[in-house]
Every structure is written in structure tokens, then in C-alpha cells.
What we know:
The protein is an all-alpha fold and 515 residues long.
Amino acid sequence: MLAGAAWKVDRPEWGLSWLALAVAGYAATVLLSAFAVSSAYTAAGLFHPLLLALSYVVLRSCSDREERAIAYFCGAVGLFIGAWGLLQTAALDAARASAFFETPATYAAVLGLILLPLLAATAMGRRDIAVMLAAAWLAAAIFAADSRGALLALAAGAGAVVILGTRARLLQRRGVASMLLALAVGWAGAYAIRATTVPDAPAPGIEVRAESSISRLELFALAWKARHEQPLSGSGYLTFGYVLEQNRAQVPSYGESSETAFVHNDYLQTLLELGPIGLLAFMGLTVLPPVQAYRRLPELPLERRAVVVAAAAALAGLSTHALVDFPFYIPACLLFYGALLGALDRRLSPNAVAIPRSWRTGSWYRPARAAALTIAAVVVLRPVAAEMAAKQGLRMSLAGDAQSTAFWIGAAQRLEPRDWRYHWYAGQFWEMQAARGGNPEAARLAADAYAAGLAANPLEVRNLLGVISVHRQHGPRLDAPADRAAFETWLARAEALAPLNAAVRGERALLEGAR
């Protein structure tokens, strides 16, 4: 849908600006890291920057009427998601609201991007009762999520509303009182729901919150220390999970099995994974919008200022949330953030350096754009098709259809050979076939699949453990079974990748017991 909307963007007022350069710079840095720097390719390195950039482009190029329609749609989506989370706590006895999101924090982060513009409108004198009710509804959902990061973002965003609204000369005392009232009503509603539905459920105590804070500090320290290993290029987009696995002893609160791919501080994670240039680009996304809004507000026509305040406050809220969580790795947050950036930039840079009209009217322009879109579609659709094929293969495996499983998982391997997961799926499938029927060909295919997965992602220990397992259990069926020296080499590498991994230690015990 976003790509289709971006295709229709062909307006004379479109052009470059500082915020456009920040979006392009960050997107290019992530894409470069995912495809050229990182040893652990993931399709998220493609889709995350595209979501951000496309939503920015679409909103940057909308008319006021189109933007208003999108805003109403996003508000309706926010109210629906908020209702879902409140229903969880009210009817399903959930301790924290999360709707369909993996964590309450990400749920609350998305809602915060919708709530803060409503609070800004209220603070600047919007007396619409529907706006007040919607703000209270979303506030209740955020309070029901009980996310400290979201509350920090809400406080920062409300503070930005006051500062920018004062700068714009739009802030009203009654409006600020109404904003605070909406937040108070939301808190009271969330508290009442919890007290009514789960009255005996204890709220997270000081000890639980302290443990969570200690875990974050340990993750922060690990990311800060690990950045020295590749100080310029970074370790690669979304590789922190492997850094944690290699240095799990430095994060004792996570024990031997807890996993996370996130530092819970997007600034530190960006510095670790994308290096200082990536951090600079990221800060262009997070720091530049409210700074530009503050500087430019007095110069803007009065009719533009309200949206500038609302958008910049919401962006400042999420940028603050990124200090203690990972909202910039959540697709929905990137989608809304890019849209708000586009809406802000359309008002801050209406006279940006425009793309020459002669380019758009030249005979080469439309064929070139069609070719670029075709290439982009192939690049984007390949990982989608591979994921669908892999899921179909896993469903066929559960149904016991070995032939269909082999076809669909093999298709996923061929479509996206850089993704280690599909080789791992294939390795597990063929290893299971070898164990059931003693088929030498299945054992060979399992060993080849695991080896391909290890070549695709040398940081992932699971494919390496698969290689060890196949050679240990089915060595006689292979053309070139591993000797003890090979097992020692593989295990040493596995211990370097995941020294506290239970499966790695189990393989070490088996090898030592075979002496």
C-alpha cells in the first residue's frame, strides 16, 4: 500500500530538506550494514528502513485533505488497538495490556505516537469532546500497559507540547489543564479496570522493577564495551543478540537461556551495530525534528504551527522512549514515526530544493521509474515469498507430508539463501528423515543444509550444532565423516559463539565421554 502511494507521488513541491537527508542517510546506513557489513543478514535490515522512508515520502507529499484522512484512519486504528488492550485487562485478566504486540512496551510506544498529537491539540485549545475522550481512552490503554519507558515518553512528549506550544504562542492554560485532565482520567480508568478485574494481582514491586533496571544497565554496559571491537563499521544491523550470546557472563541477570536482540537503548545499539556514522544519522532522525521545529516555529504562518507542535512533540516522545527500550526496531513505530516526520517536514520545508520538472517530463523518466520499481519489487518480494514458503513447509511437516515439506523449505532456501533460518529448517527436517529411515542421502542433505546455514551466518551457533549432531549421529552414512580433530575445531568455535549454551556444553560432554 505504501509503495503504491509512493508511486503516485509526482508533485512539483516535492524536494530535499534536512529531514529528508536524515531519513535517506539513516535508511542508506541500515541497508548498507544489512547487505554489506553484517555477518548475520536479516530481512528486517531491508524492511525497517523502507517502512520509515516510504511512510515519510507519502506524508511529505500529501495534500491537507489526504493528510487529514490518514490522521483519522490512524486515530481509529489507535482506538481499536487501545480497546483491544483494555479488553485484555478487563475481560481476560491480563496483568498488562499488549494487544497483538509482543510486549506491552511496544504496544504503548505505538499508542503514544497517536496520543501525543491529541494531547497537543487539547493543550492548544481544541475543545472537541471527541478529541478529549479519544485522548483519555488512549491514555488508559497506555497506563494499562504499565511500561515505564512509555510513561517516560509520555512525560517527554507532554513537556515538548508545553515548550513548543509556548514557542508557537498557541498554548492555553485551560488547554494544558484539559490535557492533564485527559491523562488523569486515563490513569483512573486503567486503575479502576485493574482493581475490578484482578484485585488480588500484585503490581510489580520495587524489587521487580529494580531487577529490570539492573538488567538494562548490564545490557548497556555490554553494548558500550563491545562497540570497541568494530568501532568504525559497527557489528552489523541487528547483531546484538549474538554479542549477548558470546558475552552472556557479563549479563548475569539474563542467566543461561534468556534471549534478547535489543540493548533496550536504541542509541547505544545503533552505535554498536552501525558505528558512529550510523549513530549520527540516527540522531538526525531523533534530535533534528524537535530542534528544527523549535527554531522555525516563530517564522511559520499561524495555520501551520499547530501541526508542527503536535508532530514534533510525538517524535520527541518516541525519541525519549528509545533511551530505555527499542521502539525504532518495531515496524509499527517506524511506520508512524516516518509519517509524522513527513507531516512535520511538509510544513517546515515547503520551499525545499525541488526535483527539476524537466526530469519528470523527460522521455527517460517514466521507463526509469518503472525499472527501478520492478527491481525494488523483486528485492522486497523475495524475502516475503521465502517466508511464506518456509511457513507452508513447516505446516506440511506438522501434517506429516514429507514430500511437500522438502519442496517448500527447499523453495525458501533457494529464494533467500542469505537467511540462515531456512537452511536450519531444512537441516532439521533432513536430520529427522535420516533418524527415522537411516537414509544416507537424508543425512548428506542435512549436513549440507547446516553447512549452508553456517556459511550464511557464521555467528549463529544452531547451524554449527546441527553440523556436529549430524556427523556424530550419522557419520558412517556420510561420504566424509568428521574425525575427532574436526569435532574439536567445531566445538571450540561453538564455545566461542555461545560459551554458556546448554546444547554446546552437552556436545562437549558427549565428546569428552567418547574418549
